Amino acid sequence: MEHHHVKDIWNADLYDGNHSFVSKFGSHLLELLSPVEEEQILDIGCGTGDLAHKIYQHGAHVTGVDKSENMVHQANIKYPDVTFIAKDVLELEYNNSFDAVFSNATLHWVKQPEEALQHIYNSLKSGGRFVAEFGGKDNVQIITNEIILQIKKAGIPYTPDQFPWYFPSIGKYTTLMEKTGFHVTFAQHFDRPTPLEGETGLRNWMKMFCGNIFENQPEAIQEHVMIHVENNLKETLYQDGQWIADYKRLRVVGIKNG
Ligand code: BEZ
After folding, report:
1. Which of 108, 208, 248 to mutate to test the pocket of ligand 1 (most atoms within 8 A of CB)?
2. What are the pLDDT digits (tens) for 197-229?
3. 256: which of 3, 6, 124, 158 fits an S-S bond (Cβ 3.0–4.6 Å)?
4. Is residue 183 classed exposed, middle or buried when 0-12, 13-18 and 19+ CB atoms within 10 A define those classes?
5. Each residue of 124-159: pLDDT tens digit?
6. Which residue's alpha carbon is at the smallest distance from atom 6 of ligand 1?
7. Global pTM?
8. What SS3 class is residue 138?
9. Which of 107, 247, 248, 249 should be mutated for ligand 1, with most atoms under 8 A from CB?
């Protein structure tokens, strides 16, 4: 399986320590999901399991899947009562199994959105709902534009396929959902300025998430790029002692017809 060959970039402790905002912000999405007792719910990109566990506390039966074995390992230790499986969304083989598919802050990592939607659709029972939030069009654009600029200035080769994410517009994504067969009942694209804790917040964020863009460049070069990014963005994104990232979210709900 693919994830046995690809380096697992996810450090579960770092994720829980410095990046717990990912699951904290996700709690509002749970209201959109509104899990009901005894429902079968699939959480795609469950990370270390915080939101899957919250869904479980509503009395639903939850299966959490994540491509990262590190994340799933940690999730199993934290929440032994919930089922967690290491699996990529593109490897899911469920058929008419779930009342709902939930996904927070994950689908922007999947650059084959049509395939992902098809796997999600197949996983749902007829009438089941898909409730997701992830990065939408222009997400973290101020940050990534500056990183790419500084990488090019440092003479590091960069091509757009190195961009690790898929950040669709509301129109593009809901169109794909409809093509897959979903009845789209809700879609929202909104700004969510997101604090990155402390003076080193932006640096931690870049170290955690921008591995692909740096493409195994020597530490010294990465350091050079990060210092320039920090200096150039400080005026725009650093306020009252903390960095604020220009997150833009896309939230959708779709119902499986037929
Ligand atoms: C996001 O949740 O929007 C995100 C996280 C890491 C990198 C890029 C985007």
Report:
1. 108
2. 899 999 999 999 998 888 888 899 999 999 999
3. 124
4. middle
5. 999 999 999 999 999 999 999 999 999 999 998 899
6. 209
7. 0.89
8. coil
9. 247
